Amino acid sequence: MSFRFALLARYGFALCLWFLCAALARADAGRLKIVATNYPLAYFAERLVGDRAAVEFPVPAADTDPAYWEPKAKGVAALQKADLILLNGADYEKWLSRVSLSKLKQVNTSAAFKDRYIHTEGVVVHSHGPGGTHAHAGTVYTTWLDFEQAALQAQAVAEAIAKKRPEWKSLVMENLAGLKADLLALDADLRSAAAAQPNKSWLAFHPMYDYLGRRYGFDIASVHWDTDEMPPPQEWEALKHTLAGHPAKWMLWEAAPLAEVAAQLKAMGVASVVFDLCGNRPREGDFLTVMRANVENLKAALR
């Protein structure tokens, strides 16, 4: 009798477990799937929907620049299965024309200000990091470094989600208000700090800070250096010529440069200031904490 009871109990437990797994699978199948092509957009989506949707950011390595990521089979599969594909626009997704994706799923989050894209001339081809060789020319893609533009991109994400899930609209728009308030607080803080500094001349290690410069009044001259390399003597000589007509006191870096590079810049009267682009998911914190740290770094330099 006890053996039969134990057998029935085990069978009943297995059956309940099967029904539970089936229910969870059905729920997951009906869950909104969002894929973002860079971390800022993934962060915006996560802030807007919480755990109500599956937000995926398929770029694999934290040291990979998503702007130079090329989706392989796994990444393409994730994009094709998505209900929404959040694109940065501004020529960020250079692979887009080579991958078959439904246009109905695609959301160009910077479309509202595409007439304000910044375009650069000249081509500098070089190689750094696991992304391989690439060029800095054409459309500047780091649109979110202008926090007002970042707020517009967040709004585009919110509107796309609300269109897919009308029943979430009230919640999404409430969350959008909080997200925009955070972004615009950063914007106001940085504008105030920049306005108080009469010297607007800056250097940047790469030509990726143009939107930051335009929004906050910095006159930025870009070089093409890497954070983990010592520039050759001819680059230092070229920098001296640049400084003769562009008296910058600061150079923006995505990450801290080599100590010997920072020391040589300091000897030339140029301080190194880290302003993380945050295109990929940070190892610690989130988009907002990284950007707050960036703003504090700039404010400290400007004092």
From TrEMBL:
GO biological process assignments: cell adhesion; zinc ion transport
Gene3D superfamilies: Nitrogenase molybdenum iron protein domain
Pfam family, one: ZnuA
GO molecular function list: metal ion binding
Entries under SUPFAM superfamilies matching the protein: Helical backbone' metal receptor
Signal peptide feature range: 1-27
Keywords tagged on the record: Ion transport, Signal, Transport, Zinc, Zinc transport
Family: Belongs to the bacterial solute-binding protein 9 family.
Protein's recorded name: High-affinity zinc uptake system protein ZnuA
